[in-house]
Structures
1.
Amino acid sequence: MSLFEQGAVGPLAVRMRPRGFEDLVGQDRALTPGSPLQLLLTGGGSVSVILWGPPGSGKTTIATLISQQTGRKFRELSAVSAGVRDVREVIDKAREDSSLYGSETVLFIDEVHRFNKAQQDALLPAVENGWVTLVAATTENPSFSVVSPLLSRSVVVKLELLNQDALRTVLVRAMESDEGLGGRVNASEAAMQALVDASSGDARRALTSLESAANAALARSGTEISIQDVENAINIVAINYDKDGDTHYDVISAFIKSIRGSDPDASLHYLARMLHAGEDPRFVARRLMILASEDIGLASSQVLLTCVAAAQSVALVGMPEAQIILAHATLEAALAPKSNSVVAGIGAAMADVQRGRVGSVPLHLRDAHYPGAADLGHGTEYAYPHDEASGVAEQSYLPQDLLASNYYKPTSHGAEERLRAVADRLRKLRSGESLD
């Protein structure tokens, strides 16, 4: 028997929407006592706010509570379907209600980042004059998606993905509440963890997954949701991966170390775990670009080009096809010869600079393109390398105090074996040593 056959009306995520300020979970930072959002929810303020956060973090719920808790009228527009005319009609009605009846209106605009400049500008008089208390929701950085005049008249409140404890609270409350599952089912620890992991910090997704898994349990006349119910209900194999917790860092660390260790199979395994769990593919692409210079470097410079191309391709293509591109870059990086001479070299050079070991730029290397420079000795003894048959002039380039420094120490791996011989030859030419 399904939940709907037992009298439950509407999706679980709707039925379990918080009825009051005290029911909100997972946004302690945004709801700190005395914060603009907390004052709005308790009727102590009327400042307009822009709620910036990921899906399922409670933006719509908070907007509704602001209206309910303070007795204000609630009007909602979606930036997907509303135009300037719709905005002006709502504002005109709110202005009329304010002047004739003294009533206040909360105007909630979902996905405000989809409004163009003209649509956002239409909100300015209402916000500035207090005809409406604007609550705008966006999943994108408002600094880039909301016009400056509207930003300056609002407070940006950053909402976070719900952590595992908050998600567990939401799920347990839904299982126990009369508005939710009414205690008809519970969940094994493995199933609960699977639901938490699969929701990726999204309360709405967690409740939707719970409802589906509960129906699966009831369909087999069970009272406990098993991990198999979760996997069958949401069509995934549940894995332990928390994008904001230790597992996130453990898996990306294992991914990088597997590539560094030249194990293509392990590298693909950890890549698959991240992508399956919903990790941002752009994050993986960025880490690959860093690795290409840090762990491979000049041993195979082509890998960096591949990783840059992969990052650009991922941004253009998106998932699920992006997994093929990331696998391509991952395999090339895992199979490439390894060298850390680049990171070691810049690290040693930075360490000297940070310790104050800089010295003066040699006179022959200084700028000589202004009157009087030659009188100071600038550039007068500079040897032009193109005038030399070898293309390398016999002269020093480091400051006098650092002449003995040797930052670049090539390995004998891959292409760097050849570069080691090149670097040694160039050093001898610059110092005047015999090449024999």
2.
Amino acid sequence: MRQISLFLGAISLLLFSACDKNGGASGEKGLEKVTYTVTDEQFPNPERGMYSGTSFSSASGNPISKNALTAGRAENRTLYMLEFWLKDFFESDISEAYLQLIRKNLEVYRTGGAKCILRFGYSNSIKDLNHPEQSAPFDASEEQVLRHIAQLKPILQEYSDVIFVLQAGFIGCWGEWYYTDHFIQGPTSTEDFLPRKHVCDALLDALPTDRQVELRTPQFKMKMYGYTLADTITRAEAHQPTDKARLAGHNDCYLASSTDQGTFNSTSEKEYWKAETKYTIMGGETCDLSNFCKCENTLKSMAEQHFTYLNISYNKEVIQFWQKNKCFDEIKTRLGYRLALTEGSFTKKPAAGSPFRVVLKIDNVGFASVMNPRDAEFVLTSKDGKVVKTWNVTSDPRFWMPGTTTVIDQTITLPEGLSGEYTLSLNLPDPAETLRNNPLFSIRLANKNVWDQSTGYNKLHTFSL
């Protein structure tokens, strides 16, 4: 952990110094400066981190339990891979019993303070390629896949609040778009890719526009939608309800070779993902130990590709290698966003009914940014903990970029008629109505003595009126 502390300290000092050179409230008259202590403590935060998996192959399975999510949270886990294998429905609709199993699982995530990386497919084991007639197919026909997506659409819409991201799935063994019976193996032409694009289009339509769909390789997005390295997402395009902004990636053979076992066909494809993942979700799992798994390369690569999540269970050999070489703690700490206050400045002599200036400096020392919509608000509470007033923060957490310091400089007006002691906090809740008031879904800042787990608020400053 000392390695992480030194890293966080160095980054904070570097970014803090750069921020001061660009201006800010430090030292301004009429403002009271508050400093915060950054911590390298590991703790659970929504929509990021190591994940474990649960899969279902029939309607007879029991949904994941809330106790299992509670136990996972004790290990700082809030993300789970949730896989549904449609083995009984190659040529028929998904049964109502199986649809209900899907709903029940997603409902448990909603009450249990967790979210899922969701995948649907038909086969989760490699068949005997020498005797294919003796094995079940890898996938269903395009027509059947589209019918299944139509059946799933109401569920995806209803429970999108606990779907962190949807992986494209459906096609090929493990839903990884490679071995396939009904889609062209090794597509090259625009026409070859068209059936896959039909599936991808249907998935984008089935989800609310604030959720992303992950593709297994950068080639699929580039070939299906006609993008090149010159077309990567800009800040102005980021997080918009467009296909371009909503198509993300997952790498399920991360660091296994120079091409990640065929994930990349060229250097330009790797550069494409480095650029795209500034604003789209990236995660996956390792599949084999290689020279590319060395700690220095891993940390550099995860930062370049903006990794938000990783499988804790696979590949065990790689995980053990990182543990042995003492970089696993840093990987766990920096996956996704990691936001830490470094300094705050507040109106020195606040008065009821008067303007109150708030200036915050927030470092993001994670590999990535917040990816899904996230509310941000200032909350004023009285000494007894009652909420007096809230104000929306005029800064989108999805643009609090990794490796940078975000400066929030905002003036609010305190309510009239107040007297006594008050506390101003920063609340970063999930915007979904179903989750907004559940602190398990709120973002905790990486500082000592600011987090209130009962409310999900991060305390900024206490003052008297």
